[in-house]
Amino acid sequence: MVSDIGALKNITVGKRANLSGATSEVISFVEIMDGILGELGIGRPTITSALRTSDDQARIMLKNFNKMRDDNDSSEIASKYINDLYSKFPNIEAIAKIFKDLERTDTQKKDQAKAIISDSWPKVGHLGGSSIDIAGISKSNLDVLLGKMGDYASFRRLWEPKPGAHYHITVDSITSFPGQIS
Fold first, then answer.
1. Which segments within the chain are labelled E, that is strand?
2. What percentage of residues in the chain have a pLDDT greater than 70?
């Protein structure tokens, strides 16, 4: 196994992907994935996100909201996207309402969303360091990779086709390591 996450050979870690605060399960998941990618030779994906602060989460949500709004010329479609994606989190309707408000600046929107996230969201997923986003190779190649990862880890995955196609992966546990006798 790779003892230094910076020594990955087959995965790029994006400049905003904070793996240093990720759980040990996520670190092991990434290290196992790196080895499997070397065996498969299917490309070099990028981890685009890992541990997020409340400020990071608000910034990313607003960026995605604005992109969905602009791409579809509709705040309603963007609101539905945010509400659907984060439906399990408290006060998401309030965040979507803030994002739709044309009287607020983007800085005000981000800061108000950050306050809601800080005050009411559980520290799970990206906020708890147990999730990563991965992109940069085709969905079919990511599906092959994640199919192999099922031999070593228990995780949940969500394909997010827009904006910026990627898999959101939440790692629950590592069940074995390559070469380990079960």
1. 12-13, 46-49, 131-135, 153-160, 166-174
2. 95
Q: Which amino acid is at 134?
A: I
Which tokens in the block code for residue 175?
A: 């069940």
Which tokens in the block code for residue 170?
A: 């939440």
148/154 Cα distance (integer angstroms):
11
pTM passes above 0.85: yes
Query: For the segment 63-100, what is each residue's pLDDT rounded down to a tens digit?
Result: 999 999 998 888 999 999 899 989 999 999 999 999 99
Question: What is the per-residue pLDDT for 2?
Answer: 42
- How does pLDDT run across 143-153, given as a tens digit for each residue? 999 999 999 99
Rounded Cα distance, 87 and 153, in Å: 26
Angle at CA 31, nearest 5°, toward 26 and 37? 120
Q: Which of 85, 84, 94 is nearest to 119 (CA)?
A: 94
Instruction: Give dist(CA 143, CA 151) in Å, integer.
Output: 13
Phi, psi of 111 (to 5 degrees): -65, -40
Q: Which residues pair with residue 155 across a beta bridge?
A: 171
Helix-helix angle 92-100:54-72, to 10 degrees: 50
Q: Are strands 12-13 and 46-49 parallel, antiparallel or unpaired?
A: parallel
- The neighbouring-strand residues paired with 166 are 160
**27: its two tokens:** 């670190």
